[in-house]
Amino acid sequence: MAIHPILRYPHPLLKKICHEVTGIDREIHALIQDLLDTMRAGPGSVGVAAPQIGVTLRACVVDVSNSRNGRENNHGLLRMINPRIIARSGSAVMREGCMSVPDYTGDVERSTELRVSFLEPEGELREITASGFEAVALQHEMDHLDGILFLDRIVSVKTGLFRRKTYA
Length: 168
Known about the structure:
The protein has about 170 residues and is an alpha+beta fold. It has helices at about 25-40, 130-145; strands at about 45-50, 60, 80-90, 90-100, 100-110, 115-120, 125-130, 160-165.
């Protein structure tokens, strides 16, 4: 459908809590496709959430299958409407980046395993258990739906924020 420009911090829409999707219609299908197109166009992108393209609805896409960190352990392309975390366990600190904050990366503590439920664009309710890098990517994108950026979760502002040298 369309590749959208990614909103950059400090754009106020990035700090908004998104609205639940109340019905899956042509507009929602178009939104999901736009998220996919935008993710695939982004350098090294493994996910995009609706607020990053200016839409305050609870929808995001994640696909870590082409990433060196997620290649071995993933569910492929996830098109998620109204996702929510049902359970979480474990904890690890990983370096994260974001297309909405292109000049920085940061060390963020995340759960290492998640149980997530969401609607697929076809209207089917799905539950998955994700771990490793895929779990991190899911938490990152779902945070966007609550107006939270990785900057808000940096383990130490003094030692955990880094200027990005290259975008990979």
